[in-house]
Specification:
This protein has a five-stranded antiparallel β-sheet with strand order 1-2-3-4-5. The chain has a single domain, classed as Aspartate Aminotransferase, domain 1 (Alpha-Beta Complex). The longest helix has 17 residues. The relative contact order is 0.17. It starts with a helix and ends in a 9-residue tail after the last helix. The protein has four helices and five strands, in the order H-H-E-E-E-E-H-E-H. The protein is globular, with a radius of gyration of 14 Å. A hairpin with a 2-residue loop joins strand 1 and strand 2. It has 122 residues and is α+β, with helices and mostly antiparallel strands. InterPro entries: YdhG-like.
């Protein structure tokens, strides 16, 4: 995961840094064929050149950006586990649990839904 090292090392809070590294490692372990890239100072995962999911750091939470279509698809599930969301992102509080099962469903939705997409964004 060397492509993310600079991003991770730039996270000041050691607990936040550890949590972000844990989540990025989990995504990489679950989906080793996805490409790891950093764009706009955000670690992202792509599949056949199209964006699947990205992450960023805020003071009180980790932001997860799966694109609007996935937010629409999983909005109720995100709310059920207590994740606040906007049209483009959802927030995982630093002191909250990561719902890896839901994260997996979102990633797999994007991989399947974007299988024929040839652009970076939808």
């Amino acid at each position: 995961m060397s492509v993310f090292e600079e991003f991770i090392s730039g996270i000041d809070d050691s607990d936040h840094r550890e949590r972000m590294e844990e989540v990025l490692s989990w995504v990489h372990d679950e989906y080793p064929n996805m490409e790891r890239v950093v764009k706009w100072n955000q670690p992202m995962f792509t599949d056949h050149g199209t964006y699947i999911i990205g992450f960023s750091v805020a003071k009180k939470h980790m932001s997860v950006a799966p694109e609007n279509k996935a937010i629409e698809e999983f909005g109720s599930a995100l709310e059920e586990v207590g994740y606040v969301h906007t049209r483009q992102i959802f927030r995982i509080p630093w002191d909250g649990e990561v719902d890896y099962a839901l994260l997996k469903r979102i990633i797999e939705f994007n991989i399947g839904d974007k299988a024929g997409v040839e652009t970076f964004w939808r």
